[in-house]
Amino acid sequence: MKRFLPDCIRQQPVIWELRKIILCNISWIKSLFKYRKLSIIGDTIIYFPKYYKSIKRHDDPLNHDQPWIVFKAKDFLDKILKNDMVVWEYGSGSSTLYFARRVKQVYSVENEKNWFDHLTARIAVEDIKNIHYMLIEAEKTSSETLNSIYISKSVTNEKRNFMNYVSSIDIIPDNSLDIVLIDGRARKACIAHAIPKIKQGGYLIIDNSDRSYYFEQNEILFDKEKWRLIHFVGPVPYTFDFSKTSFFKKESHDEIIRNYTGI
């Protein structure tokens, strides 16, 4: 549509809404072929009002109590959160405010200075006290470390090292976090560092989990005796693209015994 219409016409509200409808329909059809899950049809119908409403021009995601994950995954998250939980997230935003309103403590690490300043201002305005917010920017890398797991595949961060960003979670004792949400940079490395930090019964949440390279060297997550896996595929807020969000629950000793014995 951009190719055929002058900018002055494309910017008209009616044209924008028509474009949204067309792109929304294209997105769910593409995702149906990509993920091959018929449940996408039903979820698209159920979440279409929220999905459609979330896609606005010149809007700030911080104005909405909605993490940037699959809508159905957010509904599941609503059910498991408790006010005594401790959460760590790689990548900050509306999820940071969402968690802070529902749990005891949030640790959030961000690599983009402008976004960090924007969210810091919002945290101050809302006088939120339970967020430990960290800015850890990427560093230039040498040729010797170009193949490191700490290098992001993001085009905007090509050949930049996120070792300090990723390893920031190492300040947390093992087996002490209730939830780790990974929606930032160098995610394969983030997963590796996060796994030992999650307590039994806790969750590792990985967004855009259809990217298989995230799980290279992290195959332990697919050990069914240690982790329970839940996938959510469908529409997400703020963008036309559909995506996949996965929850990995670290089994407790009781759950392992129960699953093993069938009791």
CA(first)-CA(last) distance: 58 Å
| Name of the CATH class of the largest domain | Alpha Beta
Structurally, the number of domains stands at 2
Classify the fold: give the CATH topology of the largest domain.
Rossmann fold
Q: Could you give me the name of the CATH homologous superfamily of the largest domain?
A: Vaccinia Virus protein VP39
Low-confidence stretches: 256-263
Approximate helicity band? 25-40%
Strand order of the largest sheet: 3-2-1-6-7-9-8
Shape: globular
Report the sheet-strand fraction: 15-25%
Order of helices and strands: HHHHEHEHEEEHEHEEEH
Main structural class: alpha/beta
> Main β-sheet, in a few words?
7 strands, mixed
Return Rg in Å: 20 Å
What is the typical, i.e. mean, pLDDT? 88
**CATH architectural label of the largest domain:** 3-Layer(aba) Sandwich
How many distinct beta strands?
Answer: 9
Question: Explain this structure to me?
Answer:
By secondary structure, the chain is an alpha/beta fold. The chain folds into two domains: 7-54, no CATH class; 61-261, 3-Layer(aba) Sandwich (Rossmann fold). The protein has nine helices and nine strands. It has helices spanning 7-10, 13-35, 39-54, 71-80, 94-100, 113-125, 163-167, 187-194, 253-261, and strands at 86-90, 105-110, 131-135, 139-140, 160-161, 177-182, 198-207, 227-235, 242-250. The protein has a seven-stranded mixed β-sheet with strand order 3-2-1-6-7-9-8, sandwiched between helices. Strands 4-5 form a two-stranded antiparallel ribbon. A hairpin with a 6-residue loop joins strand 8 and strand 9. Helix 2 packs antiparallel against helix 3 (39-54). It is globular, with a radius of gyration of 20 Å. It starts with 6 loop residues before the first helix and ends with a helix.
